[in-house]
Structure formats: C-alpha cells, structure tokens
Amino acid sequence: MAERRWTWLSAQYNIPYPFLHPVDFALLSDVTGSDSSRWSVLKVWYAGQIYESLEEFVEGYNSNSIPKLKLQKPVESETLFSTLNLKGIPSPRNSQRPPQQYEADGKRYSLKDRQVKYLDWTFNFRMSPFTGPSVYDIRFKGERIAYEIGLSEISLYYSGFAPMQVGSRDVIIFMFSYYTHYCMLII
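Below the sequence we write its predicted structure tokens.
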C-alpha cells in the first residue's frame, strides 16, 4: 500500500500576515491519493487541545464540555499592528546624511575581486544561497592556515506550540542544498 499523506489544515483570517493573528483551530487530515472523496479528518486541534476524532470534538462542543472560544476578527486597517504601513513619526525627523566610519590612518584592508588582504592575513571569500559563506586559501604571513572554511549546508528548523505550526510530526527542516532547491523534511 502507498504511504499515507497527512497534513494539518489550519483556519486563518483572510488578512495580510494571518499567522500573526492565529485561530486556534486545525484539522489533521488524511489526504492520501487523488480521490478527495476518500480523504478524512483524523484529529482536531481546538483551544489548545487535540481531540482524537471529529466525532469526539463535535460531541464535546455540542454538549458544552469543551470551552468555546470567541475570537474577534481583526479589522484590516492602516493602524493594525501586522500591516506594513509606517506608524508613528519617522526618525530622524530632519533629513541628515548617514553616519560614516572614519579610518584616521587609512584602510588596513584591501579588496580585489574576491580576495581580502587585512594586515598579515589574506583570504578569498564566496557567498552561496545554498551553503552560506565560505572562505578559501586563508593565509597568515604568507603561510596557508586553511584551504577552505565554510558551511556545507544551510537548514532552517521550525517548531511551535500547536501541531499545525510544525507539520504532522515534531519539527520541520528546510534543507537548501537538496537538488539546489529547498526540500522539507519532517522528523
């Protein structure tokens, strides 16, 4: 039999940045296969608790044994904290030139292409969106200290309080070097 495909389907408000206005309701659904008539709800997350079935949740909700949440939908406006609209008085109030760093005795470094020379040190650098920063041919007073120092992988780990914030298991990892695009691993 094919592997099962489960996913948390969470309720969200239809406003910009809805994750900043959480709705404490989600369904763990079995969405295996392309025939949606065979999909089912496995668990319900509501008011900080997991209910083992949709029937258990509905029965508890209708019998008032489950606390009922009364959420007020955020009103979309320019003053809503989650908008990108500028709030308050801009700073600085007066137009000024940006601050500058001053090197009284001149620069102690030079940069040509990707090679940096700093005092007795020289190295080459590279930045990759998939593996991050790397430095190569690191030398001190002409003697090689290291051929390459860098990251071999960039990954992001996500988790949260509610199960829909982390997928259907414990943690979500985005691996950036997998096929030169990110992939999602759930462990």
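Residues 179-187 have pLDDT under 50 and may be disordered.
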